[in-house]
RNA sequence: GGGCCAGUAGCUCAGUUGGUUAGAGCAGGGGACUCAUAAUCCCUUUGUCGCGGGUUCAAGUCCUGCCUGGCCUACCA
């Protein structure tokens, strides 16, 4: 087989938070692929780095009263510790805040300028004079200019769906300081990506570089119309690199982040006396990016465009995966399913998660689900019961005899499993780890009955039959070792332990093709402990507690912080953080809103609507209102009929696709299935005003 | 509304270019063994292959319409 040269990257984690299990899907997926390629004898370099620039880092550092440099150094240390804990073996882990990255950014920039892709335009943006910074759209809140809903973000209204610029908001407020921002205009630099349209259409649609569903997505959503200019600069103050020919302006974090892939490679090259061009300007080198579906846009349009313009090698493949759900739902801090890497490692063996993810990961970008019962079962049944059991049931005997000189008749098992190697390798190569694990476990399923039939424990009692015993154990341990070679990309620690047991390191895929003979066998030591459900439960419990106390402090915006000392409920600070307090309003402002108790007379599904229920409310007497409420995911219509709710009774009626909505019912919660209607205490009567 | 994916045993899934009687693991039931981490082994129950049409000698597999779920996107709130 021709030796390939591969450069592999995983997405750069942002230096603004800890690694959690969702991140680890990607790093484990990538690490397995890299280990597989190395095991196959290819030259493979795995680089990554912390993504360190941008407004979020700058503001957090300010809030914590320290420098950005200090913050990103500390975060990077934590990230590297967590990755090491899960056996993610980067060849180099850098930072986007490096000299090499700045140097490369300048090169890319010069190329973009030379190609005539950069244009300058004035952009009006809200400016927070208190915090001294321009405000990205999501850092401004205010009242929607169209439907007058309060507390909307600066780019669009999640009540009426209007899109607008933050300057259009009524009574805008900076999320950072609570100050009223002012409109300031500043020159911004844009990349005219449309000039590369033909190239990007060809590159994305060639069928070679992207999963088909991704190619279709891009075709349908972006490439069908002119590509929009990309605003690539941010005015000072901004934590990042200043643009050399545009003083006072900084490259937007998404410009320098992917360049960090190259910068990290360069740092490795410097340390190892290699030439960067051999990796990034060499058509023989394959470049593979592993990313999550949320950053598809950047890696499949901007990034290839930048690489093409600057004369670097384009990615051979961009491998895109889905998100992680836990117990069938999005990870939730309050439910303890938002599990940090660090927390996991306090309770469970990283090998478990590596194997579990491997058994679930396919080549598509479907989301995957971490189901705790399945997790426990898979580890115990597959790894402990099937694979490791082969060694633990035969190694004790074999320690006495050593491995035979000649491989015994095992009914063709070793040969069959060796022949399966190419299928397993192909599954790894195509990122179909679920298939690879399935194939490997099929082999394991055949190995245990062999031992069962051979009854080594009977032979062990008869000294005259030591030769037979040795033969059986030689087969059993070789079948075990063969499985471990196939599993080595997923379970590197198990591969090491197998190497220690049999006195020969596992270093190459080809070791699965020939049995190991004539070696002594060391004393068997436990390789994997069974997973206990209690440990899993404890981890989840721990994730809940951690969250409750860790968020009470500095990040709460505008909190008159409740003292934590006498708070027996330990309510999380998350909801308030997710939606900071609105600007102070006067009593006069408040009385404009006429809240009334209302009884739900009827509630029905609106067949064409995804989120809406149609409610008929009574305000007493014969006053009724029809209201469309976005609570379909949370409530069954039948359950609402007869109950009292609080409605906004003087809201301007609004024509919706499905009819006229004459008010709204009050509810709280993040949305989706988590919506909680307000109810008055018993005794309230429809029509009464809420004061 | 548009795009993509999925729907096969109680659960998780396999099923290659259409080709015998649709499979595996787990769970359930019965038994065996005791080398092994209450591990293992043998036997065993369960299927309108989401639904309806069509192509074909032959459809889980191909085509088409529909239903359900997921993700994305848009619109409307």
Concise description?
This protein is of the alpha+beta class and 691 residues long.
Quote the beta fraction: 15-25%
Largest sheet: 5 strands, parallel
Q: What oligomeric assembly is this protein in?
A: single chain
What share of the residues lie within helices?
25-40%
Q: Ranges with pLDDT <50 over ≥5 residues?
A: 546-569
Strand order of the largest sheet: 3-2-1-13-14
How much is the average pLDDT? 86
Distance between the termini: 79 Å
Structural class: alpha+beta
Q: Helix segment count?
A: 22
The general outline is globular
Q: Let me know the number of strands.
A: 26
Structure description:
Mean pLDDT is 86; it is low at 546-569. It is globular and about 100 Å long. A five-stranded parallel β-sheet has the order 3-2-1-13-14, sandwiched between helices. Strands 20-19-18-21-24 form a five-stranded antiparallel β-sheet. Strands 5-4-9-10 form a four-stranded antiparallel β-sheet, with no helix packed on it. A hairpin with a 2-residue loop joins β22 and β23. It contains 22 helices and 26 strands. The structure holds one RNA strand of 77 nucleotides.
Provide tags for this entry:
five-stranded antiparallel β-sheet, globular, RNA-binding, single chain, 22 helices, 691 residues, alpha+beta, 26 strands, five-stranded parallel β-sheet
SSE diagram, text form:
Elements: E1 5-10, H1 21-39, E2 43-50, H2 55-63, H3 68-85, E3 92-95, H4 99-114, E4 118-128, E5 133-134, E6 140-143, E7 152-153, E8 170-174, E9 182-191, H5 197-205, H6 212-221, E10 230-231, E11 233-235, E12 249-251, H7 253-272, H8 276-280, E13 285-292, H9 296-310, E14 317-321, E15 324-326, E16 329-330, H10 341-347, H11 350-360, E17 368-370, H12 372-401, H13 413-419, H14 421-429, H15 433-454, H16 456-459, H17 466-487, H18 492-502, H19 533-550, H20 574-578, H21 587-591, E18 595-605, E19 613-618, E20 624-629, H22 637-640, E21 644-648, E22 654-656, E23 659-661, E24 664-665, E25 667-671, E26 674-677
Parallel strand pairs: 1-2, 1-13, 2-3, 13-14, 15-17
Antiparallel strand pairs: 4-5, 4-9, 6-7, 6-8, 9-10, 11-12, 15-16, 18-19, 18-21, 19-20, 21-24, 22-23, 25-26
The structure holds one RNA strand of 77 nucleotides.
């Amino acid at each position: 087989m021709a030796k390939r040269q591969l450069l592999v990257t995983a997405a750069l984690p942002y230096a603004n938070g800890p690694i959690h299990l969702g991140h680890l899907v990607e790093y484990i997926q990538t690490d397995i692929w890299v280990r597989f390629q190395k095991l196959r004898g290819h030259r493979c370099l795995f680089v990554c780095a912390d993504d360190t620039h941008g407004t979020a880092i700058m503001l957090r550092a300010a809030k914590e009263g320290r420098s950005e440099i200090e913050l990103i150094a500390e975060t990077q240390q934590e990230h590297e510790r967590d990755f090491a804990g899960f056996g993610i073996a980067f060849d180099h882990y850098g930072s986007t805040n490096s000299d090499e990255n700045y140097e490369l950014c300048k090169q890319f920039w010069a190329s973009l300028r030379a190609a005539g892709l950069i244009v300058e335009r004035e952009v009006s943006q809200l400016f927070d004079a208190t915090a001294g910074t321009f405000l990205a759209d999501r850092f401004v809140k205010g009242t929607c200019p169209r439907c007058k809903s309060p507390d909307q973000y600066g780019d669009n209204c999640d009540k009426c769906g209007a899109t607008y610029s933050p300057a259009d908001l009524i009574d805008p407020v900076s999320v950072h300081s609570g100050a009223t921002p002012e409109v300031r205009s500043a020159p911004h630099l844009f990349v005219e990506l449309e000039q590369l349209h033909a190239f990007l259409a060809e590159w994305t649609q060639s069928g070679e570089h992207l999963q088909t569903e991704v190619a279709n997505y891009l075709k349908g959503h972006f490439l069908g119309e002119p590509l929009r200019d990309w605003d690539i600069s941010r005015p000072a103050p901004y934590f990042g690199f200043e643009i050399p020919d545009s003083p006072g302006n900084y490259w937007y974090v998404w410009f320098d982040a992917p360049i960090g892939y190259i910068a990290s490679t360069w740092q490795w090259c410097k340390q190892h006396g290699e030439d960067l061009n051999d990796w990034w300007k060499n058509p023989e080198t394959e470049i593979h990016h592993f990313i999550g579906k949320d950053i598809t846009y950047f890696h499949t349009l901007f990034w290839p465009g930048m690489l093409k313009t600057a004369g670097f090698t384009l990615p051979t493949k961009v491998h895109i995966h889905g998100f992680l759900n836990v117990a069938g739902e999005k990870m939730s801090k309050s439910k303890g399913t938002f599990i940090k890497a660090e927390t996991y490692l306090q309770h469970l063996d990283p090998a478990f998660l590596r194997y579990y993810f491997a058994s679930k990961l396919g080549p598509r970008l479907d989301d995957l689900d971490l189901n705790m019962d399945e997790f426990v079962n898979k580890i115990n049944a597959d790894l402990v019961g099937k694979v490791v059991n082969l060694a633990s049931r035969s190694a004790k005997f074999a320690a006495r005899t050593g491995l035979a000189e000649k491989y015994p008749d095992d009914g063709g098992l070793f040969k069959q499993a060796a022949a399966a190697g190419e299928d397993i390798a192909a599954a790894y190569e195509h990122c179909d780890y679920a298939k690879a694990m399935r194939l490997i476990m099929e082999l394991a399923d055949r190995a245990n009955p062999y031992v069962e039939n051979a009854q080594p424990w009977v032979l062990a009692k008869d000294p005259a039959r030591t030769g037979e015993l040795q033969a059986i154990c030689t087969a059993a341990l070789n079948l075990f070792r063969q499985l471990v070679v196939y599993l080595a990309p997923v379970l590197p620690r198990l591969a090491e332990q197998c190497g220690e047991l049999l006195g020969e390191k596992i270093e190459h895929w080809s070791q699965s093709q020939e049995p190991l003979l004539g070696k002594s066998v060391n004393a068997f030591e436990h390789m994997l402990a069974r997973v206990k459900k209690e440990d899993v439960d404890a981890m989840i419990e721990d994730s809940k507690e951690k969250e409750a106390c860790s968020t009470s402090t500095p990040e709460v915006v505008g909190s008159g912080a409740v003292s934590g000392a006498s708070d027996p409920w330990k309510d999380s600070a998350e909801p308030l953080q997710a939606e900071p307090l609105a600007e102070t309003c006067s009593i006069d402002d408040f009385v404009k809103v006429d809240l009334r108790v209302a009884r739900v007379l009827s509630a029905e599904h609106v067949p064409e609507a995804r989120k809406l229920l149609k409610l008929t409310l009574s305000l007493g007497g014969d006053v009724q209102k029809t209201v469309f409420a976005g609570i379909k995911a949370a409530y069954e219509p039948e359950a609402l009929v007869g109950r009292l709710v609080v409605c906004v009774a003087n809201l301007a009626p609004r024509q919706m696709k499905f009819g006229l909505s004459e008010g709204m019912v009050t509810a709280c919660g993040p949305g989706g299935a988590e919506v909680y209607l307000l109810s008055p205490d018993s005794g309230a009567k429809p029509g009464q005003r809420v004061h």
